[in-house]
Write a structure and sequence with these properties.
The structure holds three protein chains of three kinds. By secondary structure, chain A is of the alpha+beta class. Helix content of chain A is 19%, strand content 21%. Chain A has a single domain, classed as Alpha-Beta Plaits. Chain A is built from four helices and eight strands, in the order βαββαββαββαβ. In chain A, the strands form four sheets. In chain A, strands 1-8 form a two-stranded antiparallel ribbon. A two-stranded antiparallel ribbon of chain A has the order 2-3. Chain A has a two-stranded antiparallel sheet with strand order 4-5. In chain B, strands 2-1-5-3-4 form a five-stranded mixed beta sheet. Chain B is of the alpha+beta class. Classes of the chains: A alpha+beta, B alpha+beta, C alpha+beta.
Chain lengths: 140, 95, 624
């Protein structure tokens, strides 16, 4: 069944990090890029930026590797959800994700991942250059 | 009558040259000249000069008639005379 | 819970004793001075006494951010306040990019650095943890190399670093700070102050949060700001400030050959279109900005290729380009990169090289004086060599490293008439004979000749005013100064200006009731901010406080002036041909300005004005 996914266009990314800011505000009610579910990787010297975020894989390595059954796929949006109750913060999913999208919050015992804001991702709304999109793709 | 039009940046790129001479009739206004330009250079030019509703200039565009901002004359309805010079400028803010 | 939207702490770092002390940020202090330049001005005034040598341990370096820093409302600038080695007066210098937000995430609003380290040191600020790290192995390295080495030794590519290069280490009086490779706290010689304290770099990493009083409203206003920016930007988003090159040349006020002319015949080789066609690769943005006006360039041709640079911008392009008779964009970009790496202010560098070239042209400097360098207009190879001599204080470089005011005195033989500065700060890229209001701005800005403290160009060339007349200029400059002080206290960029949405953003962030005051003569411009029930104009307050610092150092009306060239030599060509500033008219304009500001005939803020601004202690200092 077709579903929308997060699609990243690094060539359009200007490195403003507004996505990180609105994400942390939406999810944690404060501004803290380190707690955002999206992260901008930058190579300042060459002026390049890459938005790193969960892209709702068809087959999820994070789910396959989790021994605690703490990760599931939300039915409508296909967002990858983490059950804090079952998560033991072992970090296996962090290592398994090919995009490095699931994060262990530095200095804390919790794992975060993009939940697509229930189907209306706020980062996509704020991005000034549409470097991140939420849309149907051929492979979904 | 003959009117000279000068533009900068993106507009200059669309028009393809720094300045143009346009022949207009004696009742022409600034709006007449802009409509003439849109006729010649199409939607891309129109989008850079006018807002979505096509009722006013874009926020970042200023037009000078013989060095004076038309905002302080009669806006888009400002009457033109032979050999007037119009300059379409981006508004600068600081730096 | 702490103060909303602020980091909540001021940290004092003593380099002599290697000691750190933290102080909680007081809410009244925050309300009174907002942040950035405001915090810096108050602390500098209180803690750096008159006649302290800028290179003495008693001078302080104050780095501050503002209430909007680190939020989705644009406010990334970190303000560096210190006593300038160039002017001996107040200096505030803004650094964009991403380092300001990181300071806020570490939990700080302000760092105050005093003393002098025995050995080269760099500071590591990692949340609560502040360390003095050895920097002997970094001393002598350029800013890019320093950035790379510190990231490597900390094993952390996310840390943000501000550093000096060899120019700051060698106390070149217009040395700057470079951060994130391509951003600078450029003007006034802050790099030399760091060098005098043996402070090589500051590395910052923060994992704390910024809390907001009213989150939902704040997010809504952030979306509004984004919309306003995208709709109001136009070609500015594509060209950045390179948009100005053609226009300022068209108005006949583009500094050319050391301000001998206002028109550069080869302008098409170095304007915004030339940049887009030849070297620009992509757009980049400051932290949280939708405008993305920065031009990232990849230079593949010419004798200096290949290299990358974010820039050059208008000021650098004009001062290093036309002001030095240079019409080669690749060479200008390379000189920009060189200055970024060795840590030199590109505006002052372009100005002082232009000065040297005019001296060379007129025989005041000979080949013997220049150690064989042929300082002919547009000779970029000689410019590159001269920059190296300045950085390492070799030969003529040692004289020029003192800044154009001192250098022209030392060279003598009439060189002083070729020195374009105000109070010692080298003049930037607008010829005041083409717009007399910006001349008043140059004369009365707190830090010396600065174009951005009262940027009057649009109002003078496309407004109701006559750019060659003094009419209306005193009030215009006064409004712009106050406005810019709010912009510099919030740490926002002036390119979009002080938009009304910032009142809403600041109110939603802090929970305060912030009000905007409009000027009667220029009703569309927000002149100042105040907080409801406290009738103090904050921008005016900060401006007067910095002014008082200068008054205490001995500055008076006679320093609020312009180089003689602008009063005596008419522009020879272009749209402003024949124009110069009549010195009687200038005096009249200055007197009118003082009246509007509530200053006496000497340019000293009156007791009445200071008390009105809740600066009673300053009034005591100046008037008892």
């Amino acid at each position: 069944m077709a579903y929308k996914r997060m699609v990243v266009h690094p060539d359009k990314c200007i490195g403003c990090r507004l996505c990180e800011l609105v994400c942390s505000m939406e999810k944690e009610k404060k501004f803290n890029p380190k707690r955002a579910r999206i992260k901008i990787l930058s190579e300042i010297e060459v002026g390049a930026s890459y938005p790193k975020v969960c892209v709702q894989c068809a087959k999820c390595p994070c789910i396959e590797v989790c021994e605690n059954d703490a990760i599931s796929v939300e039915e409508e949006t296909r967002a990858i959800l983490i059950d804090d109750g079952r998560c033991t913060y072992c970090g296996d999913c962090v290592a398994a994700c090919p995009f490095g999208a699931i994060k262990l919050v530095p200095g804390e015992k919790y794992v975060i991942n993009c939940d697509l804001c229930g189907g209306n991702p706020i980062c996509v709304k704020i991005c000034p250059t549409q470097a991140i999109e939420y849309k149907y793709t051929r492979s979904s | 009558m003959l009117v000279k039009v000068k533009s900068y940046a993106i507009l200059r790129e669309i028009i393809g040259k720094e300045s143009l001479r346009i022949i207009v009739d004696k009742n022409a206004t600034v709006l007449t000249v802009l409509e003439d330009l849109v006729d010649r250079y199409g939607e891309r030019l129109e989008k850079e000069i006018f807002n979505e509703a096509k009722t006013t200039l874009r926020e970042y565009v200023a037009i000078l008639l013989n060095g004076k901002n038309i905002q302080y004359i009669n806006g888009l309805d400002t009457q033109l005379n032979h050999e007037d010079q119009l300059v379409i400028l981006p508004i600068l803010r600081g730096g | 819970m702490g103060l909303n939207s602020y980091g909540g702490a001021i940290v004092y770092i003593d380099l002599t004793k290697e000691k750190v002390a933290k102080k909680k940020l007081d809410e009244d202090f925050a309300k009174g001075y907002l942040g950035c330049k405001g915090f810096g001005a108050r602390i500098l005034y209180d803690e750096v006494s008159p006649r302290v040598d800028p290179f003495a341990p008693e001078n302080k370096i104050i780095l501050s951010v503002g209430p909007l820093t680190g939020t989705s409302a644009f406010g990334p600038k970190c303000s560096l306040v210190t006593k300038s080695p160039l002017t001996g007066g107040f200096l505030d210098s803004n650094i964009g990019g991403h380092i300001g937000p990181e300071l806020k995430y570490a939990g700080y609003d302000t760092i105050v650095i005093s003393g002098r380290s025995k050995r080269p040191v760099y500071l590591l600020i990692d949340d609560d943890n502040i360390e003095f790290k050895k920097a002997d192995h970094l001393w002598g390295k350029d800013t890019h190399e320093t950035d790379r080495l510190i990231k490597k030794e900390l094993n952390d590519s996310d840390v943000h670093i501000a550093s000096i290069g060899p120019a700051g280490e060698n106390l070149v009086r217009f040395a700057c700070i470079t951060s994130d490779l391509y951003r600078q706290a450029g003007r006034g010689g802050s790099g030399a102050v760091w060098g005098s304290k043996k402070l090589k770099a500051i590395a910052i990493q923060g994992s704390r949060s910024v809390n907001i009083a009213n989150e939902e409203l704040f997010l809504k206003y952030s979306h509004d700001l984004r919309k306003a920016t995208l709709e109001g930007g136009g070609p500015f988003a594509t060209y950045g400030t390179m948009l100005f090159v053609d226009l300022i040349n068209e108005y006949g006020m583009l500094p050319t050959k050391n301000f001998q002319s206002g028109v550069f015949p080869e302008v098409k080789k170095i304007n915004g279109d030339a940049m887009l066609k030849t070297i620009k690769s992509k757009d980049r943005a400051c932290f949280a900005c939708s405008m993305h006006c920065a031009n990232f360039c990849v230079v593949k041709h010419g004798s200096y290729a290949p290299f990358n640079i974010e820039g050059p911008e208008y000021e650098t392009t004009t001062m290093v380009g036309p002001n030095c008779g240079l019409g080669n964009l690749e060479a200008i970009a390379y000189i920009n990169l060189l200055c970024d790496k060795v840590g030199l202010d590109t505006i002052s560098t372009g100005n002082i090289i232009g000065f040297s070239m005019e001296c060379y042209e007129k025989g005041v400097l000979t080949k013997r004086d220049t150690n064989g360098l042929r300082l002919t207009w547009g000779n970029h190879e000689a410019m590159v060599e001269l920059i190296k001599k300045i950085t390492y204080r070799e030969g003529i470089g040692n004289t020029l490293a003192e800044g154009v005011k001192s250098a022209s005195k030392e060279i003598g033989k009439g060189a002083e008439k070729y020195a374009m500065h105000v109070k010692g700060l080298e003049m930037p890229a607008y010829d005041p004979r083409g717009a007399v209001g910006i001349g008043l701005g140059y004369a009365t800005a707190n830090r010396g000749a600065c174009h951005s403290r009262a940027w009057t160009i649009s109002e003078e060339v496309m407004g109701k005013l006559d750019r060659f007349s003094i009419e209306g200029k005193p009030m215009l400059v006064s409004v712009k100064m106050h406005r810019k002080n709010i912009i510099d206290a919030l740490g926002i960029c002036e390119q979009m200006g002080l938009l009304p949405i910032y009142v809403d953003l600041l109110s939603a962030a802090t929970g305060w009731n912030v009000q905007a005051m409009h000027n009667k003569t220029y009703p569309s411009l927000i002149e100042d901010f105040k907080i409801k029930n406290e009738n103090i104009m904050i921008g005016e307050r900060i401006y007067n406080l910095a002014r008082a610092f200068n008054i205490r150092e001995g500055f008076r009306r006679k320093e609020d002036t312009l180089p003689k060239r602008f009063f005596e030599e008419p522009l020879p060509e272009g749209a402003a041909e024949g124009h110069f500033i009549n010195s009687d008219e200038f005096d009249k304009m200055l007197s009118e300005y003082y009246k509007i500001k509530g200053w006496d005939k000497n340019g000293i803020p009156t007791r009445k004005k200071l008390v009105e601004l809740n600066l009673e202690d300053v009034a005591e200092d100046l008037w008892s």
